[in-house]
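2.7 Reproducibility. Because tokenized structures are sensitive to small changes in the input, we list the exact sequence used for Cystathionine beta-lyase, including any N-terminal residues retained from the expression construct. No trimming or masking was applied before prediction.
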Amino acid sequence: MDKPTRLVHGGREPRRQHGMVNPPVYHASTVIFPTVDALESAAANPFEGVYYGRFGTPIHFELEGLLAELEGGAGCVTTCSGLAAITVALMSVAQAGGHLLVADNIYLPTRKLCAGMLARLGMTTSFFDPRITPAALAELIRPETVALVVEAPGSLTFEMPDVPALAAVARAHDVAVIADNTWATPIGFPAFEHGVDISIQAATKYVVGHADAMLGAVTANESWYATVRRTAVEMGYCAGPDDVYLGLRGLRTLDVRLARHADNALRLCDWLAGRPEVEGLLYPPLPDDPGHAIWQRDFRAACGLFGVQLKPCSRQALTAMLDGLELFGMGFSWGGFESLVLPVNLTGARSATRWPHEGPLLRLHAGLESADDLIADLKAGFDRLASAT
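Resulting structure tokens (single pass, no recycling of outputs):
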């Protein structure tokens, strides 16, 4: 079945649930076993079937199975947040004295995790230009390098690494490949077809899709899945059953939502390109974006998240523009039904490369509203910016 059909029909079995379309939510910690033999058998195989609430309930297994199927991985583990998913992925490859290679456009909390907890555990991290060539990447790999970590594209500055080419280099050196696939989702980027070993999603974003739950997911191939699941259990991570239900519900409409988000983003970009206040747009689906050729080759869909590089202006003018927006809320998340704007502060967010622009950088998430209404909101904002300049 094609992915849109699998989104609708996967992860549910009405015949097993009294004909109900959606699977039930299990609020459970303790699981009761009828016999000593059954209890001991479950304890001997805690990753198979229902054992204890923290290890997952039937609704967890439905969501995890569907995500693994969509991504093409051997299995998936859900966590309580996107950062928890990142932590599980990195701790799965971590070892004392190990070395990570991390793209410089990575999610900022990932950078902080590398500099904080992983460093205290004896791991070192080298950051690299996300547009690095395979040959240059090969020169950075050390005997102790355990993983390559990429985000395609980065969720602040939107550079597009060549994941298949970089993954081929990593594989040749027996280095695991970890990719943050939150921007594209499994609908937009089939990570495992492009050499990824462990794929991360902040399912809080597009999977949930309604700005009302925290959820993470780590999908892994056959070589890494058992380690990933064991790591999540050992760290005590588990997703709440209600949030898992909201993730499963959100998946049903992911395909059509992504299409609307992307269409609105393109409409906004087309309008913004003609604004005198705009220096450039950061969105790989645009033909003139530096990452467009890679996006067109490897990706099957886009989303609504993109960057707007403004020409230099005063803080007073920028705040006049943003504070008065009516449809674009200011917030740190994205992927929900609502449009958002975020003034981006890159302080501490880069170390291997330097951001070359002086003007303000805005991150926009195009929600599901009318594109014409969103454009009108931005136009009024630019009018306020001009008046305050």
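The chain has two domains: 3-252, 254-388.
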